[in-house]
């Protein structure tokens, strides 16, 4: 066994890239005081957001609800035209958005550009879906009536987004709400609110009514939710985040019988079978773990590798992760940026130490990097991870690859499903039969077969079991913001 360790040398940010991001921030019109937003690569203060209170949130509900009544009366074509205009502005300002995402969230600039592409795809998709409203015309089975079904906007939507994809998670919710004819109150994560603020400003420039989408930054998330979700004007809530918080929001939503979409925690299995293409599997494993520094709900979490290929796979990923360039996201050549905060770094350290204490073999990384002003942890490979270790059942949300081994296909499926979560999964095999058989058995809402990035605006994103309910993206994502209504029209018999 060999152990490889990443270098402590961190890539620093490019000064011109930092200046680009800061020019965008300067143009946002942020307040001069409130809650500070910081760069996770340096700890540098970027600006302030308003310390919103419950009264301010209720004013946002009132304002958006009033604007929403007019928006609901617009035609699908009018809404589509506005969304197309928003898409065009987002594309025009793609570099501004990418630099801003990296500055406040930390991901490498290349990944931020990918997020901009992904996030804008949702706006374009729903601009196109808006003019394809679902409906149906049918005769009643016993005759004498015609049944018409149609879709109507569900009403004011409260959209709560996470910090890890600050543009894509916002557009994935706002775009279908607007396409359906709904107003929205958006609460971005306190750690990364600036991208959402900028994206909504661009939406207004594109023709979205100024009051229709309200961005709020409450000091207390719990007070916000407890108050706003009980307001009778609110008819929909969409949340992306932890299962624990999702359960709380669902309890609050129940009192007001709100239409609810919940994209919650994950514990994605990554299955590598003996017949997999080794290099393809290694490429996929690295991509599924290091995208966003592992800070993704669909990041591969439990690597289950068949015995016959395991040694070669472990050697390959350990060698790859030991060479990964770590540093500021705005640095030239950075592959893995900082974690979101120092608490996340401590969590990675604790998970690694616990796994090793239980008998796992540390094959790469396992150390904090830098002097603590930024939040860096070396990409890490742990082999032969025992089931008793914390990491075996935890959503890692960081750059640690935890590898376990299996013997048979049946064992792999059983262990992959042995979790309360069911968001995403990955299967690497060269056998079509095996891929289809395993896909039929895995309890996940999303599955990537021989690929590590299964998300697409045209696909219905969401999980099963404790990973949530509802779908985002595809036609199903629009339906989450619509109610189904039917009209029964009596027909007079004719001779």
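Q: What amino acid sequence fits the structure above?
A:
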């Amino acid at each position: 066994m060999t152990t490889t360790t990443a270098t402590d040398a961190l890539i620093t940010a490019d000064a011109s890239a930092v200046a680009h991001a800061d020019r965008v921030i300067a143009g946002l019109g942020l307040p001069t005081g409130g809650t500070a937003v910081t760069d996770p690569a340096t700890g540098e203060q970027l600006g302030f957001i308003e310390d919103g209170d419950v009264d301010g949130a209720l004013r946002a509900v009132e304002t958006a609800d009033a604007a929403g009544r007019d928006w609901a009366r617009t035609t699908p074509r009018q809404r589509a035209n506005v969304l197309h205009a928003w898409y065009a502005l987002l594309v025009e300002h793609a570099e501004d958005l990418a630099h801003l995402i990296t500055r406040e969230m930390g991901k490498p600039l290349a990944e931020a550009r990918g997020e901009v592409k992904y996030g804008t795809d949702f706006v374009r998709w729903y601009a196109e879906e808006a003019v394809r409203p679902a409906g149906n015309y049918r005769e009643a089975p016993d005759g004498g009536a015609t049944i018409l079904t149609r879709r109507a906007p569900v009403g004011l939507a409260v959209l709560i987004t996470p910090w890890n994809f600050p543009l894509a998670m916002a557009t994935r919710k706002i775009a279908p709400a607007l396409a359906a004819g709904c107003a929205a109150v958006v609460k971005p994560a306190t750690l990364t609110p600036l991208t959402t603020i900028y994206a909504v400003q661009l939406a207004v420039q594109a023709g979205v009514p100024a009051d229709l989408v309200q961005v709020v930054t409450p000091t207390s998330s719990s007070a916000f939710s407890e108050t706003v979700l009980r307001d009778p004007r609110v008819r929909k809530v969409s949340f992306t985040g932890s299962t624990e918080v999702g359960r709380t929001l669902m309890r609050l939503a129940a009192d007001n019988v709100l239409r609810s979409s919940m994209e919650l925690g994950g514990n994605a299995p990554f299955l590598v079978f003996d017949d997999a293409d080794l290099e393809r599997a290694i490429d996929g494993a690295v991509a599924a773990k290091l995208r966003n520094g592992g800070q993704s709900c669909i990041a591969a979490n439990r690597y289950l590798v068949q015995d016959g290929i395991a040694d070669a796979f472990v050697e390959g990923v350990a060698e790859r992760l030991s060479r990964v360039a770590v540093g500021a996201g705005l640095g030239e050549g950075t592959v893995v940026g900082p974690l979101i905060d120092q608490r996340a770094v401590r969590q990675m350290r604790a998970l690694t130490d616990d796994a090793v204490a239980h008998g796992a073999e540390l094959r790469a990384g396992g150390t904090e990097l830098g002097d603590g002003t930024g939040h860096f942890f070396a990409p890490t490979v742990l082999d032969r991870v025992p089931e008793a270790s914390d990491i075996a059942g935890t959503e890692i949300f960081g750059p640690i690859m935890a590898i376990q081994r299996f013997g048979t296909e049946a064992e792999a499926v059983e262990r992959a499903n042995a979790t309360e979560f069911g968001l995403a999964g990955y299967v690497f095999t060269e056998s079509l039969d095996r891929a289809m058989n395993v896909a039929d058995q895995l309890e996940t809402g999303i599955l990537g077969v021989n690929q590590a990035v299964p998300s697409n605006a045209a696909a219905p994103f969401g999980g099963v079991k404790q990973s949530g309910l509802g779908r985002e993206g595809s036609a199903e994502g629009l339906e989450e913001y619509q109610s189904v209504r039917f009209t029964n029209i009596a027909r007079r018999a004719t001779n």
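Q: And what stands out in the fold?
A: The radius of gyration is 24 Å.
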